[in-house]
């Protein structure tokens, strides 16, 4: 029979809870269907009911499936309710159904019960609800393949303005030899980045956001958002660069289209005397703004329209390239163009070496020019010509198969363009004189066959295609960052899955237009380069980290990768950044750092299973193995407190821990460093209360974070507190990272509320700590413990009666490091024997404290004066009351023993009571309590050693001793060290 609770859970058709509560959040119902947890007990049958809210979503209704602990019954029920898909289908499914495997497979979306393919559930973030449905997938937006989704966008971005109107000039300035080196140097950077990108992109399903998604999931949300926003800015600015290039080419080809008067630039220092015209800045601005707006209208049309328009931009580009190479092959010396030599070995030799010189802002050689070009400067100018490899991954949300399309399409585009650049260096260097290369900014049009107009059209369309891809990828990148809900300030750019990011497109267009107004292509280019290189370095570092750690989840389908390639790629990116401009590098890194800092402060926490978490785990394992299990040297000793959260009494509602325990735990750490383990025990059966324990653990973890205490939460289910604590003290921790101090609250309420079970439990916990060799700190007066804002004055008094390895001294010094206690001073009270030299003892203790680098005042109380001093009146009253209660309890024990004819029994075990020893214990605690009240009544905190529970004494007696010890002392720490020194005299 089912219990009522199980019945409600299964008949309600409610929720399913997987092994990980973060993966399948209770209450998830967005998929139109809910599931209830299958609860199996020894005498229960688990019933799994799956019913569809929308009957139209499947071809046939799924009947109720019952899973019985009896194989024959289960097989019959399942055979009658499940369709037969194969010859052995029902028998195979019935066996799996017994253990819940078949239904689990269906829920996870591998295959539906009717054989229909279904969608895999999305990855959860921040514990958010994830709906899991068996319905047919809804029609999605248009998806692109490898060619149109990756190869064409990458090719359009790479084959842009730099190649047409700057590449021949670069060959003339650097020479053929260094131009080849330049192409190889920049190309190897993007090639290695493509390898890293391919590895990460094939390591699982990929959402929108491209490189941001990859970097964020590998290096964490803070790094991902900072690099992602910089890359977005780089894409937006790149769109402006391509628009300016297209407009400049158009105005050079059709000068009559200029609204304003052209700027004439005279040629100096060259053999060519004709002047070179340059379009007006205002024309560039006006035409650039108009073109940007027109491109935005295309982007608003969505992926479908972009895919239709992209070939119209690409085909003329390919045709123009054919015309350029045809013109190079057909060029002769007798061609009318001045400076065109045709393919000539003499030109090849003359143009082999570099000719670095000064130029004006238009790039025309001028001895008085303000700009001096060298290899580093050319790297900054040329590198945008090899960028664009992220154009396909930027549109990852619009791809049919990201794991196949991104590696194949990106690598093909990279190799194709790199080969084209290398061949072009040889051809350009052999076809014209150096002066022609340096002064003819449109050499590609000059040498094109049959006429230059084709090249002008190709240049314009190639740059417009690249601009279109930038304006397409940048908004989707920004929308992906906003959808991850890390930065609230980006919420305006959020979009629903499958929708177009219109707001992000408007914002991107605004940035693009702002850069178009600047109008100078050579000033914009280095800025783009820095942001691109920052993103490429992030991709390489991500792959390097994931490959080096080699976590079990790192299983990329792309096998041609190695961590050394990624490391070299990352170093190349950084080297190129500094080669171009250390000032721009510092600015870009500072911007990324500011965004990182802002995200870490204002951003919402998100656990994406990034590589840093894996690195921390690997480092922790290595550190743990290196520590071993040997005894920790006192110089390396850190307190690892185990905070016992379960109170002796009740806590306020929805408060999982005493509010001051976390404050006290922070007082045991120097500058907040160190780990605390907060534990609590839930009474009951583990199988029945496992979910309660998970809920309590989450609440306790949240509370610890709220109190800003470095620690972890653990909840243990046990039949009772004693057994639970005994298991905890034996098993908690690993190696030398086991907790070494047990911290708990003193049970002040046990007599007031007549909680008779507390003495035995309290004494049992102390004995367990002694056996396990754990230090103990018991806090009396926890309600009055100060927080970090409550300043304390006075003294911290130590009644150092037994040797405890220096733990009491160390804890007092740690208290002084906190702002609330930094105004206090330490006093150490020593009890000297009657015949000993009190002054000598005081000098020895002072010398000992001096060697320990501890500032404290030493006060010696001789045994003789201690015996002769008058006790405090309140101590005498407490002493008399304790005597009466012990006598009454002992009388009851004797009567019960006589009646039952058994030895004296207490706490379920025989005890031996030596009444004289009991009186001695009571008298000792009386003297100590009276001394504390005499000397330390106004102390901020009093430390006193914890006396061990006497063997064979009732727990009730020990509680009376302890109550008498702490009587009328408002704030007391009772400390017991363990068999290890925690302080040392030596350096």
UniProtKB/TrEMBL annotation:
InterPro entries named among the record's database cross-references: AA-permease/SLC12A_dom, SLC12_C, SLC12A_fam
UniProt entry keywords in alphabetical sequence: Glycoprotein, Ion transport, Membrane, Potassium, Potassium transport, Symport, Transmembrane, Transmembrane helix, Transport
Membrane topology, from the record: Multi-pass membrane protein
Residue ranges of the TM segments: 146-167, 179-202, 223-244, 284-303, 310-331, 371-393, 405-427, 447-468, 503-524, 530-549, 570-599
A family per Pfam: SLC12
Domain Amino acid permease/ SLC12A: 149-618
Ranges in a coiled coil: none
GO MF annotation terms: potassium:chloride symporter activity
Biased composition range(s): Basic and acidic residues: 1-10
Annotated GO CC locations: membrane
Sequence ranges of Acidic residues compositional bias: 11-23
Region (Disordered): 1-40
Annotated localization: Membrane
Span of domain SLC12A transporter C-terminal: 659-780, 791-986
Stated family: Belongs to the SLC12A transporter family.
Name listed for the protein in its UniProt record: Cation-chloride cotransporter 1
Protein source organism: Nicotiana attenuata
């Amino acid at each position: 029979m089912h219990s009522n609770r199980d019945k409600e859970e299964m008949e309600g058709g409610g929720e399913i809870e997987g092994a990980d509560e973060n993966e399948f959040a209770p209450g998830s119902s967005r998929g139109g269907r809910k599931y209830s947890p299958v609860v199996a007990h020894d005498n229960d049958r688990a019933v799994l009911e799956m019913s569809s809210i929308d009957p139209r979503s499947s071809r046939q209704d799924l009947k109720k499936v019952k899973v019985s602990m009896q194989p024959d019954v289960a097989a019959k029920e399942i055979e009658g309710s499940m369709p037969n898909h194969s010859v052995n289908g029902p028998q195979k499914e019935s066996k799996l159904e017994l253990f819940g495997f078949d239904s689990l497979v269906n829920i996870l979306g591998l295959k539906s019960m009717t054989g229909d393919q279904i969608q895999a559930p999305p990855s959860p973030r921040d514990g958010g609800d994830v709906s899991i449905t068996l319905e047919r997938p809804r029609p999605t937006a248009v998806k692109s393949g490898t060619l149109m989704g990756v190869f064409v966008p990458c090719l359009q971005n790479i084959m842009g303005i730099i190649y047409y109107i700057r590449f021949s000039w670069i060959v003339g300035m650097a020479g053929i030899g260094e131009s080849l080196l330049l192409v190889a140097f920049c190309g190897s950077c993007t090639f290695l980045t493509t390898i890293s990108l391919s590895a990460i992109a094939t390591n699982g399903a990929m959402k929108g956001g491209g490189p941001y998604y990859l970097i964020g999931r590998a290096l964490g949300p803070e790094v991902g958002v900072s690099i992602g926003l910089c890359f977005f800015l780089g894409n937006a600015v790149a769109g402006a660069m391509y628009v300016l290039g297209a407009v400049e080419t158009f105005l050079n080809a059709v000068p009559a289209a200029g609204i304003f008067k052209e700027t004439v630039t005279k040629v100096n220092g060259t053999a060519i005397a004709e002047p070179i015209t340059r379009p007006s800045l205002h024309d560039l601005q006006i035409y650039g703004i108009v073109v940007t707006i027109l491109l935005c209208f295309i982007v608003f049309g969505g992926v479908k329209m972009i895919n239709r328009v992209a070939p119209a931009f690409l085909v003329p580009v390919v045709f123009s390239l054919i015309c350029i190479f045809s013109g190079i092959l057909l060029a002769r010396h007798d061609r009318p163009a001045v400076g065109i030599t045709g393919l000539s070995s003499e030109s090849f030799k003359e143009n082999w070496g570099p000719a670095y010189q000064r130029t004006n802002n238009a790039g025309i050689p001028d001895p008085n020019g303000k700009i001096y070009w060298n290899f580093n400067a050319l790297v900054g100018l040329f590198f945008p010509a090899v960028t664009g490899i992220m154009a396909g991954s930027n549109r990852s949300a619009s791809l049919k198969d990201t794991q196949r399309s991104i590696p194949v399409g990106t690598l093909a585009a990279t190799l194709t363009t790199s080969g084209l650049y290398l061949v072009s260096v040889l051809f350009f260097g052999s076809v014209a004189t150096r002066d022609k290369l340096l002064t003819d900014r449109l050499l590609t049009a000059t040498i094109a066959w049959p006429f230059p107009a084709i090249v002008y059209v190709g240049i314009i369309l190639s740059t417009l295609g690249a601009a279109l891809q930038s304006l397409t990828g940048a908004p989707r990148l920004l929308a992906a960052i906003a959808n991850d809900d890390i930065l609230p300030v980006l919420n305006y750019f959020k979009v629903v899955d499958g929708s177009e990011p219109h707001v992000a497109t408007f914002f991107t267009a605004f940035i693009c237009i702002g850069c178009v107004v600047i109008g100078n292509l050579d000033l914009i280019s280095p800025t783009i380069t820095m942001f691109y290189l920052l993103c490429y370095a992030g991709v390489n570092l991500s792959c390097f980290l994931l490959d080096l750690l080699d976590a079990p989840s790192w299983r990329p389908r792309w096998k041609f990768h190695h961590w050394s390639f990624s490391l070299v790629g990352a170093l190349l990116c950084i080297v190129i950044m500094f080669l171009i401009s250390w000032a721009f590098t510092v600015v870009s890194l500072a911007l990324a750092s500011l965004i990182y800092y802002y995200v870490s402060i204002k951003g919402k926490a998100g656990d994406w299973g990034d590589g840093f978490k894996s690195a921390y785990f690997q480092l922790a394992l290595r550190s743990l193995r290196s520590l071993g299990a040997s005894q920790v040297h006192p110089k390396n000793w850190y307190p690892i407190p185990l905070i016992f959260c379960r109170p002796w009494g009740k806590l306020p509602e929805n408060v999982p821990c005493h509010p001051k325990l976390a404050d006290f735990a922070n007082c045991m750490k120097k500058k907040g460093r160190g780990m605390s383990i907060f534990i609590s025990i839930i009474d009951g059966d583990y199988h029945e209360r496992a979910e309660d324990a998970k809920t309590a653990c989450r609440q306790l973890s949240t509370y610890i974070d709220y109190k800003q205490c470095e620690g972890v939460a653990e909840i243990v289910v046990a039949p009772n507190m004693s057994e639970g604590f005994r298991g905890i003290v034996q098993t908690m921790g690993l190696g030398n990272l086991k907790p070494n101090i047990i911290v708990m609250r003193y049970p002040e309420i046990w007599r007031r509320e007549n909680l008779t079970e507390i003495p035995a439990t309290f004494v049992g916990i102390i004995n367990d700590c002694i056996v396990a060799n754990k230090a103990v700190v018991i806090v009396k007066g926890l309600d009055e413990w100060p927080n970090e804002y409550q300043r304390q004055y006075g003294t911290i008094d130590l009644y150092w009666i037994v040797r405890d390895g220096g733990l009491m001294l160390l804890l007092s010094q740690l208290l002084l490091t906190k702002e609330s206690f930094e105004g206090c001073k330490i006093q150490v009270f020593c009890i000297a024997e009657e015949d000993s030299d009190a002054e000598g003892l005081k000098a020895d203790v002072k010398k000992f404290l001096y060697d320990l680098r501890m500032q404290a005042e030493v006060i010696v109380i001789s045994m003789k004066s201690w015996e002769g001093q008058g006790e405090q009146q309140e101590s005498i009253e407490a002493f008399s009351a304790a005597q009466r209660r012990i006598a009454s309890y002992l009388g009851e024990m004797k009567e019960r023993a006589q009646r039952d004819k058994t030895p004296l029994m207490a706490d379920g075990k025989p005890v031996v009571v030596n009444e004289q020893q009991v009186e001695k214990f009571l008298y000792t605690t009386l003297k100590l309590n009276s001394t504390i009240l005499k000397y330390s009544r106004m102390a901020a905190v009093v430390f006193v050693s914890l006396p061990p529970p006497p063997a064979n004494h009732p727990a009730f007696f020990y509680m009376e001793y302890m109550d008498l010890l702490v009587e009328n002392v408002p704030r007391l720490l009772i400390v017991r060290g363990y068999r290890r020194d925690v302080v040392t005299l030596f350096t």
